[in-house]
Amino acid sequence: MSQPHILIVDDDELIIEALTCHLERMGCRITSASCCREAIERLNTKDPLDLVILDYCLPDGSGTEFLKSVGEDQRLQKPPVIMSSGILDPHAPVWEELKKHLPPVSQALIHAYVSKPYTFDAMDVAMKEVLGGDYIPESRRLRHTRLAR
Prior knowledge:
By secondary structure, the protein is an alpha/beta fold.
C-alpha cells in the first residue's frame, strides 16, 4: 500500500490537524469529517478509503450509531475502523454491550481501539495492526529523516 487513504472523523479540530500532519509525514493521504453526516458523505464516494479513525462522541451521534448506519447502507464503503474515545474503556463491559447491538457487518468493521488521549506512537501501532505490513511508520520516518538531510 503505497499511500493509505485515511478518513479521520473527530469533532476536535486540533486532533484532526495534528493527526493529519503526523500521518501525511508518514506518507498517508488524509480526508477528514467533523460529524457523522460528513463522514457518511465521505464514505459515499468512489475515492477508496483504506481506514477510518473514528471518535466515539460526535455532535450528531455516537460512533456506534455511525457504524450501524454504515453497516445498513450498501452504497457506502466499509473500510476497517480504529475507534477512539476518551470516555469509553475498550475493556469495559459497557463497550462490549454497545458492540453487541451493532449488526454483524458493523461489528466486523472495528479492527482496533485507541483510548484518548493517545500518542502518535499508539496510533501508529494500531494502524500497523490494521493495515498490516504495508504501513510501516518506522521505515517512513527513517526515509523522511534521510531526505531532510
